[in-house]
Amino acid sequence: MSLSSKRKRAGNTTNSSKQAPPIHTDKEFTQNATTTSVNYEDDINDFSIASSNSFHTDDELPISSKRSKNEPNTPEEEEASINSSSNSSVSDGSGASATIIDTKNFPHSPPLLSPSQYTYTVNPPPVGRPIRIYCDGIFDLFHFGHARMLEQAKKAFGDEREVYLLVGVCDDQLTREKKGKTVMNGYERAESLRHCKWVDCVIEHAPWVVDQEFLSKHRIDYVAHDDIPYASIDTSDVYAFVKEQGKFLPTHRTEGVSTSDLITRIVRDYDQYVRRNLERGVTAKELNLGFLKEQEVNLKKSISDIKTSIHQNWHGTKTELRNDFSELKNDLRQTFAVWEEKSQEYVREFSRKFGAESVVDKIFRRRSRRSMVGGVANGEDSTSTITGVPPDHLRVLATLMSTYPLALTFRSLPPRNQNLKHLFSLTFAILVMFGMFDVANTTSLSRFATGVYGFLVCALLCYAVTVYVKGKWAPRIVFFLAMGHLSVSARLSNDKFDLTGPQMILVIKLTTFAFSVYDGQKPIKELTPYQRNKRIVVLPSLLEFLGYVFFFGGFLVGPAFEFMDYRQFITMGMYKLSSKTLKRIQLQHHDEIDQSLQNNIIGQNNGQITDNQKDDDDDDEKKNLYYIPDGFYPAVRKLLFGFFWITLSMLMAKEFTIEWTLSEEYKKKSFLYKFYYIQIAAFCARFKYYVVWLIAEGACILSGLGFNGYDDKGNAKWNRVTNIDVIAYETADNIKTLLEAWNMNTNIWLKNYVYLRVTPSGKKPTFFSTFATFGTSALWHGFLPGYYLTFVSGAFVQSTHRAIRRNIRPFFLTPTLSPYKRIYDLTGWFATQITINYLIVPFLLLSLRQSLHVWKLNYFIAHVGVILINVLFAMGAGKMLMRTRVLLSNKKDLLKQVEKSTNGDAKDIGENIENAVVPE
Fold it and tell me: What pLDDT is recorded for position 322?
């Protein structure tokens, strides 16, 4: 970096309007593309002989004098020597000659400024001797920008005159005082300059600002620098006096390259350079790396190696995928051919199944699996073939994506127009469901109309029951009415989409609504905190009720949510600001809150304020100020996380299907392989749930429904309607945590409206409560046997888990075994994951015979483990563990007492403990 980069810029300085003699115009430089390079060692020797006065001062040291006579020439001198016979000599009239080398293929620096571009005078060059030009700077990390500046100074007078270039470099002490620490020390910076072919002499310990004394001492004819004025403390331009004397030569700066830029690149790629040096044997201590930083660098290196490996193997993988797509295309073509041949058979079978049979028989008759398969448009076939995702899944994905622009539109509706919001929600929920049907198929449109009609009738009946039926029978009637409609609607589905999906969400909304209305009629002292928060005191209008039931963001696949959450969302109650909340927001987001308040705060609210939103102690609440935070980035994160699972599904789900467990190949595998396979297959089966729940939650967040207040730091929380916590589920070390992280809103519904409702008031939940909850969950999913196998088995597993956790976990909370708590947690995670993956096999296969077949091939291992554990507890294992824990606890307390009474005598302590009576 040159000295100019260290000084402060000042205004342009103008001295004389007299035009300087032409030095080197842009046009001339372009025409003289053939530049010359001089053998400077010969020039300096000739000059020192011809001159009567020595121009070298004590601190000047010509580069030629640094070499011994036996030292080999530099590459430039060797090239000049080789080409000297074919090049001509040029004399400047002083007796000194220069050897000209053709450098037309060399890169050239930019030309000097044209005389018309500056207004000061430049003296004509001296005659009879070389011209002495001076440049100075720091020259840290010497780069081509430095070299180009020196080249311009060297070639300032073209090829006709010889230039002797002196370059000053500031020492370390002066540089640290004026600028700061450099990468290279003074000696290294000076040596870098000595190896530059444009430099004739290096002046170390150069001053920060040149003065007249310095110019006279070194017989300097010109000072070369860029033409931007630089200010010092005592003058407006440090080169003003040089310009007045006609000794200033302007140079061009090389844009885009500087020492600071090089250092920035090094800092930016710091980890890469550290890894490279570590690989070359440099120790972490030499690089000044702490332990944590070293581990971080090693981790990043591992990730980089994995990326490189994936990139290298992608070509082969791409070929394999192309072959797989080709095979899939052929399989689809054959499938469609068979489908066409048997179309008449399908029509006859349809007529037989939907003939004059009783509704009850249709409900309880074993129906085919709810897999979403069937014919779709050619465009969907093509996309499905490319991505490997079933066509019906693509249609669901596209429909869910359409809710994002709807959410943005909903957010822009007038905040106080609640009826408009209800109408928007109802209308577009129906349109969202319409997107799941084939509009070109008359039968499909008929089923769509029937489905919408059924949803509206069910919702209106339940609303009427809650309005006209009082007491505990209202929620019970609604529960059976909604669940019965779900069972009937399970038969009403097209080839591509099962209408029971939206109907399952509808059941949750209708039953929670009915129970919340019932809770609003009860004394508040009889309610739990959750029930007090969600109770409905004022019945909604029919339009508000339908807006809640058919909210477009969660209508298709969820998430389900409480009516009071919807009311607070529509009336802006969830966005109300208290003084404490406003202070937290302003403290955390001070720079952003002013503009956000102007754009997102709504003033006086004339809309409905619910009884759950009152706070008489807060003055700001009375002002009815509402701040609507921006949920765009949280919504995008959910969307991207959903697409991550789509990608993983495309890569893995096709290779690990649960259907392969029914094949003969699977039957021939070893037990360990079969058990391992169902673990991976069950894991892949969860991908589709992750995708739809995450994307649907993102749309709710974008609309604003997902907002759930602020944390202690003033950051907005967006977990009000979270339906899946993927990380918590996959890392759960017990059944309770795992179930709480899966289908979370359904679990909230089962817990608060089934599990706790069937438990007598004032008593703890029993096994009957657990069994009733899992049974309701199975009934909610459908009547296929696989559901009941999974949920009934899950009830026994959860009960066994409670017994294990109650009797074994306390051991690892004691000071003695607490260091092994991590091993206990890891064991719990492993047992939980393999058990749940084993249990959901019937949930995926649905068939009783197929489910029992796969469990049999795996020796009913989870069931056997549950039975053995329960037998052990029935034989008294729980009491034995309890006595052991009490014994250990009492011995510790007794040891402390005895040690205190015996003053620490080991023999007395042992005798006293042996004689002590420990109660059971």
Answer: 73
What is the C-alpha to C-alpha distance for residues 24 and 113, in angstroms, rounded to an integer?
7
d(CA 807, CA 829) in angstroms, rounded, equals: 18
Do residues 686 and 646 lie in contact, with contact meaning Cβ atoms separated by under 8 Å? no
What are 393-410's pLDDT values in tens digits? 777 888 888 889 999 999
Q: What is the pLDDT of residue 885?
A: 66
Domain residue extents for the chain: 3-265, 357-572, 574-627, 628-723, 725-875
Is 72 exposed, middle or buried, given 0-12, 13-18 or 19+ CB atoms closer than 10 A? exposed
CA 564 to chain centre: 32
The residues near 514 (Cβ < 8 Å, ≥ 6 apart) are 462, 465, 466, 474, 475, 478, 479
Count CB-CB contacts under 10 A for residue 481.
18
Q: Can you read off the two tokens belonging to residue 237?
A: 């331009």
Cβ atoms of 59 and 203 within 8 Å: the answer is yes
Strand runs (DSSP E) across 414-485, as ranges?
none
> Domain 3-265, what fold?
Rossmann fold (3.40.50)
Pairing of strands 222-226, 248-251: parallel
Q: What is the pLDDT of residues 217-229, one digit of tens each?
A: 999 999 998 876 6
Tokens of 561: 């949510």
Q: Tell me the C-alpha distance between 518 and 738, whole Å.
A: 31
Token pair for residue 719?
A: 């977990």
Q: Are 507 and 462 in contact (CB under 8 A)?
A: no
What is the C-alpha to C-alpha distance for residues 770 and 796, in angstroms, rounded to an integer?
A: 9
b/e code 885-897 from CB counts within 10 Å (16+ = b): eeeeeeeeebeee
DSSP code at position 369: P
Tell me which of 693 and 323 has the higher pLDDT.
Answer: 693
Residue 23 structure tokens: 């030095």
For 159-194, letters b (16+ CB in 10 Å) and e give eebbbbbbbbbbeeeebeeebeebebebeebbebbe
pLDDT (tens digit per residue) in 290-324: 777 777 777 777 777 777 776 666 666 667 767 76
pLDDT at 872 (0 to 100): 87
DSSP 828-856: HHHHHHHHHHHHTHHHHH--HHHHHHHHH
User: CA-CA distances (angstroms) from residue 324 to 154, 380, 393?
Assistant: 67, 18, 19
Share of the chain above pLDDT 70, in %: 66
HSE value, Cβ hemisphere, 13 Å, CA-based, for 315: 2
* C-alpha R_g of the chain: 42
Q: For residue range 851-874, what is the model confidence (pLDDT) as tens digits?
A: 999 999 999 999 999 999 888 888
Cα separations (Å) of 294 from 264, 266, 274, 605, 688? 21, 18, 9, 56, 39
> Over 530-593, what HEC string results?
HHHHHCCCCCCCHHHHHHHHCCCCCCCCCCCCCHHHHHHHHCCHHHECCHHHHHHHHHHCHHHH
**Which backbone phi and psi does 371 adopt, to 5 degrees?**
-80, 140
Active-site residue, selected from the candidate residues 146, 218, 485, 781:
781
Write out the H or E segment, with its range, that includes residue 224: strand 222-226
Angle subtended by helix axes 848-857 and 785-807, to nearest 10? 40
Question: How many helices (H) and strands (E) in the chain?
Answer: 40, 12
* 344 pLDDT more than 90: no
What single-letter DSSP state applies at residue 652?
I
Average pLDDT over every residue of 371-391:
47
pLDDT of residue 491: 58
β-strand partners of 505: none
Is cis: bond before 502, omega within 30 of 0? Answer: no
Instruction: Assess whether 143 carries a catalytic annotation.
Output: no
Q: What is the mean pLDDT of residues 204-209?
A: 88
- pTM recorded for the entire structure: 0.55
> Please, which pLDDT band fits residue 15 given cuts at 50, 70 and 90?
very low
Please give the pLDDT value at position 455: 87
pLDDT > 80? residue 613 = no
Residue 341 corresponds to which tokens in the numbers above? Answer: 């041949």
